[in-house]
Every structure is written in structure tokens, then in C-alpha cells.
Amino acid sequence: MDREASKLEEGIVGIFSRAAAKYxxxxxxxxxxxxxxLVEWAxxxxxxxxLDVAAGRGAVLYPAGKQVGPRGRVIGTDxxxxxxxxxxxxxxSAGLQNIEFHQMDAEQLQFPDASFDxxxxxxxxxxxxxxxxxxxxxxxxxxxxxxxxxxxxxxxxPLQVLYQQALLRYLPPKPQxxxxxxxxxxxxxEQLETVLRQAGFEQRQLGAEDHEFVYSGEDEVWEFLWSVGxxxxxxxxxxxxxxxxxxxxxxxxxxxxxxxxxxxxxxxxFARGVKPSP
Length: 278
Hints:
The protein is of the alpha/beta class. Helix content is 41%, strand content 23%.
């Protein structure tokens, strides 16, 4: 791995390691909802062998394990040792016999070719230093006719746009360096279709889904932001700037307030592709 990619990967792992304890455990279970929907999109069969890449705190892992049943097997991987440690403890505590979890690089999967009936990856593709390399690994470990299922955030996801616009203006200026290409967020159906086609997946199916979530109030939203990938913005701010950013977020949330809390919509993209048979 080149130095820049290694540095990027180390930074992302650090962010999610520090968020691990509260990831998808603050406010509405956003990732769990879309994880269940991804499992439905993938049409997992009873007894299937499934790989969940960038499994985090189990948003896809747990519903996949339920879907494949006791004769199936779901293996989760994540590069963050904190995610792996905390989720593994939950798996053991719940006595889930058909799920296991390992620390592993998505771009160097330690499995033989054609090991899985399905590979799933929820909201993780754009974090990989070389997403195309990860997709080639997904294809390699799939059995012929096996399914890949992905989720990403849509570029026009209302809450995602609100949070990013409120926070980005408070980030410190980037140093003047050579212009680097902006990595793809895979946040349009066209981008996802193209990358799956280029990776060699057939029978591609893509779509978008909205879901409304309710936070108890502004403080819960702020805690939520610290518990997810957006934490990477907050950690770059000094204490005074962080307070300004917090005020900006709270101000933006006023338009979403109802008697029972703050209502907001996340829009996710779903993609499904199949590994060609010989």
C-alpha cells in the first residue's frame, strides 16, 4: 500500500475506533435499519455462507445471521480492532453460534477464492483507499453466481447534506499542496452502476430508499454526530470553533422540530450485482 493510502486508512480506522463504543447506539438506529434492508435486498438463502465487510457494530451482521439461520454462516470483517472487540463481545454474550468477526483489510481478504454465497458492505465503500481493489476482492471470494450487496449515502440525502453543510464551513483550511483528485463518494446510482460494471458484476440492480428517523432533541443529534463517521470533521476543530459549529447545527435543526422530537430523512442507495458463472 502506498504511503498516502496507508495514512488515509490509518486516519479512518482511528476515527471509527474512537466512535466504536457508541456507533449506532445513539439516537435512532440508522445503520441497523438500512442493514436490515440490505439483507432483504441481497435475498440471502437459508444455509448461505455470507461475508460482511466493514461490519462495524453489526448493523448488517446480525440480520444476515438471522436470515441464513443455524445452518448458515456469517463472517464479519473490519479494520478497526475496537469495532471487532466490542462486536465480538456482543456476539459471544448473545450466544450467536453462526456469526464470527475478524480484524481484516477489505483490500486483502484472507479467504480462498469462491468462499461465499454473498458479500455485503454497508456504508463502507468510499472509505477504502482503493475501492476498486476492494471490489475485486469481493468478486474473488464470491462463488460463481454469488451476490454482492452494497449501501452508500445518496448525494441528496437530506440529513446527510444538512450535517455536512453545517460542519464543513468550520473546518480549518487545507494546506496548499498539489491538487489531488476528489475520491468518489459513490453517491449516485450512475456511479454505483459504473463501478459494479467495471468490477465485473452482472445482473446489476440499483435503487434508492428514504426513511425518516426521530431524534429526541438537539443534544441527541450532537451526540449522534460524534458516534459516526462525521466525527472526522468535529475532531479537526478547536474548542471555540466546535461551539460555533454546534450552534450552527442546532440552528439548522429548528426547521425539523416537532412535538415528539426532531424528524429527519436519510436517503440510502442500494446496489446488487452477481458474479458471472463460467
